[in-house]
Write a structure and sequence with these properties.
Blueprint: E1 16-17, H1 20-30, E2 34-39, H2 45-55, H3 58-67, E3 69-74, H4 85-98, E4 106-110, E5 116-120, H5 127-137
Parallel strand pairs: 1-3, 2-3
Antiparallel strand pairs: 2-4, 4-5
């Protein structure tokens, strides 16, 4: 019997941006939409479920690499996970503009100029179904 060992290619690692300016430049240069994800990575159960069910899957990572610029605005609560003040301020500015109701998780699909195409949250969907929903917003 021949066994094949599969390794995870690091080029498929999800590249989450943490700065809107960088995300916009990448989106513009590559003609891609931005998927902005507001999450509470260490306290929000639906956020953690969405991460495990969609964002962290190989299927989503491979697709996102070619089709989206992923931007994360995390709001952890544990001191051990505290963000640098500069990053926290960037995330707060994003929330002030795109998540005024403080919903978690909250997913915003937008273009490079910041025009919102659509919004969604956690839904019990497969990665393929979730990608279909994200794509349904894109103009």
């Amino acid at each position: 019997m021949l066994f094949t060992v599969l390794s995870i290619n690091s080029s498929f690692a999800q590249e989450w941006q943490s700065d809107i300016t960088t995300a916009r430049k990448l989106a513009k240069a590559n003609d891609l939409p931005i998927i902005l994800v507001f999450q509470g990575s260490d306290w929000c159960a639906p956020c953690i479920k969405l991460d495990r069910a969609v964002w962290a899957t190989d299927e989503f990572k491979a697709y996102a690499k070619e089709h989206y610029v992923m931007l994360q605005a995390d709001f952890p609560r544990r001191k051990s996970n505290a963000l640098p003040e500069e990053q926290l301020n960037k995330n707060k500015a994003l929330a002030e503009k795109y998540n005024r109701n403080g919903v978690f998780p909250f997913v915003v699909v937008m273009n490079a100029e910041g025009e919102v195409y659509g919004e969604t949250s956690y839904k019990k969907l497969s990665p393929k179904e979730y990608m279909h929903e994200l794509n349904s917003f894109i103009k």
